[in-house]
Amino acid sequence: MKRLAGLLLAAAIATPAFAQQAVRTERVTLSVTPIVTGLSHPWALVFLPDGSMLVTEREGTLRHVGETGELGDPITGTPEVDARGQGGLLALALHPKFADNRLIYMSFSEPGPDGTNSTAVARALLSPDNKKLENLTVIFSQKPKLPSTLHFGSRLVFDRDGRLYATLGERSDERFREQAQDLNSHLGKIVRINDDGSVPADNPLIDKAGTRPEIWSYGHRNVQGAALNPDTGALWSIEHGPKGGDEINIPGAGKNYGWPVISFGVNYDGTPVGSGKSAMTGMEQPVYQWTPVIAPGNMKFYTGAMFPEWKGNLLIGGLKARSLVRLEVDGSKIIHEERMLTGIGQRIRDVAEGPDGAVYVITDEDKGSILKVARAP
Fold it and tell me: What is the mean pLDDT of the chain?
C-alpha cells in the first residue's frame, strides 16, 4: 500500500499544472484551458482585432500569439529594458484606432546612467505580419530616475477621448517614497498624456507652477492595475499596499490618495506608515481595501456575453492570493467578493476579455501560461 501511495503521489506531481479542468464557482462552472505555456514571467496581454494576441514577457520580449495558441518568435524592435527586480517590459495598450494605424503602446523600465532607471512609455508601429516594431518612440519618461529595482507600476489605459493614462510606482525605498506627495516628481502618480506624449490642455495641474503637468492624481504607492468603467467612462485603479492596505480607487483629477502619509497597512517591519492613520482631511479614501493583501495584478470590467452573470463585475488578478478575484459593483461601491481559480495555485498577473467573451488570464511564473476561462459545457 505504501508503494502504491508513493506511485500515485509521483503521478500527481508529474501531471501538467494546467491540464484542462472544470472549476465550480458561485454562479457558473468554468472550463480552464491552457492556451500557451512556458512563457517567462508574462506581464500583459492584449487582443488584436483579428482575435490573436500580444503578450509581454518581463525580461523584455514581446510575442504574437495566434487565435489557437501558436506562439511566435520574439517581435523585433522592442525597447531596451532594465529587467532587474520588478523591472522589464510591462504594460501594453492598443491605440483606439489601431485597426487603421497599427500603433501599440508599451511601458517598461527605462535604463538611466549609473544604474538608475524609471518607468517609460513608448509607442511603435506593429508590422502587418506581427513580426517587428517600427518607428519606436519614447513618448513619456518618469522623472526622476533612481537606483531602485522596485515599484515601476504600471498599466496603460486609453479613455473615451483618446487620452492615455499611465500608472507609476513610487519606487519603494523610504528615501524616495515621500515624493509621492511631491507634485514636482512623477513618483507615485498617475499621469495623463495625449497619444503622442504631449500634455492635454485640461490636465488638472497644467497651470500650476513647480508641478509636473502630466500628473492626473498623486499619493499612490504601486499601481499595477487600471481599467475604464464601461458605464461611466471613469478610470478605476488598484494598487499594492505594504503589509495590508491594497486599494481600489477611482482617481479624480488633481486628487491626493494619501501614500505615504496614510495607509490601511503597516510597513513590512510592523512599524506605522507615515502618520499611522488610515484617513486624513484632504486625502481620498479607497473604494475598497484588502488587509491581508491580495497583491493585485491588473483589473478588467467584464462586458462579454459568455458570462451574463458577471456583467459589470470587476475581475482582478491576485498574485499573493493566487486567484482570479471577482467583485460585484454597485455604482462606486463593492458589494460582494469571490475568489476563483484558487486550485491552480499560480500568481495571476493580467486579465483580458477575448472577442468570444471568454476571460483570459496570464500567470506570472518562470514558466507562465495564458489560460482561457470559458463556460463549461
Answer: 94
Q: Which strand (E) or helix (H) includes residue 100? A: helix 98-101
Whose CA is closest to 244, among 266, 222, 269, 277? Answer: 266
The pLDDT of residue 286 is 98
CA distance 162 to 136: 20
Helices (H), the chain: 2-14, 98-101
Closest CA to 140 of 253, 61, 225, 216: 216
Enumerate helices (H) and strands (E) in the chain, giving the number of each.
Answer: 2, 24
Query: How far out from the chain centre does Cα 301 lie?
Result: 13
Establish how many alpha carbons lie within 13 A of residue 21's alpha carbon, considering only the half-sphere containing its beta carbon: 13
Rounded to whole angstroms, how far apart are CA atoms 364 and 298? Answer: 12
21 pLDDT band, cuts 50/70/90, is: confident
User: If you search the block for the grid coordinates 456575453, which residue do you land on?
Assistant: 305
Catalytic residue check, 220: no
- DSSP classification of residue 10: H
Residues facing residue 246 across a β-bridge: 290
Q: Which of 41, 64, 95, 151 is catalytic?
A: 151
**Contact 157/180 with Cβ under 8 angstroms?**
no
List the strands of the sheet with 53-57, edge to edge.
42-47, 53-57, 61-65
Average pLDDT over residues 347-362: 98
**Mean of the pLDDT values across residues 56-83?**
97
**Contact by Cβ (8 Å): 261, 280:** yes
pLDDT at residue number 18: 57
Residue 210 — left, alpha, or beta (φ > 0 → left; ψ -120 to 50 → alpha)? left
Confidence check: pLDDT of 235 > 70? yes
